[in-house]
Amino acid sequence: MADEAIIKNPGTVPVLFHEQREAIMRLLIEKACNIIELSKATKMNPGTIKRHVDMLVDHGLVFLAILDTNEYGIKLKYYRAVARKFVFSFGWPLN
Fold first, then answer.
1. What CATH number is associated with residue 56?
2. Mind listing the pLDDT tens digit for each residue in 52-91?
3. Residue 33 falls within a domain, yes or no?
């Protein structure tokens, strides 16, 4: 995990500053979590968590940190934020 990531795409702003995704990001900055852990910590539905995590992955804010298998053979995906701090750097208007 990097100390800092520079965000150059203004389209990432609403992704990151969505209330539920912000709560997820705060947890993923602290440690790697799977969907169930995030669901329990935020009291959100696992399907909602998965949708938000997918969006964060698509925008390069989160990555799949660990792929594990539990004792029942179920694959567990642990996600982590790409950095501890995010800095926005873009001009307006865009070219």
1. 1.10.10.10
2. 999 999 999 999 999 999 999 999 999 999 999 999 998 7
3. yes
Model pTM score: 0.90
Domain that holds residue 16: 2-87
The gap from C-alpha 7 to its chain's centroid, in whole angstroms, comes to 14
User: DSSP letter string over the chain?
Assistant: -EEEEEE--TTHHHHHTSHHHHHHHHHHHHS-B-HHHHHHHHT--HHHHHHHHHHHHHTTSEEEEEEEE-TTS-EEEEEEESEEEEEE---SS--
- Average confidence score pLDDT of the chain: 94
The answer as to whether 94 is a domain residue is no
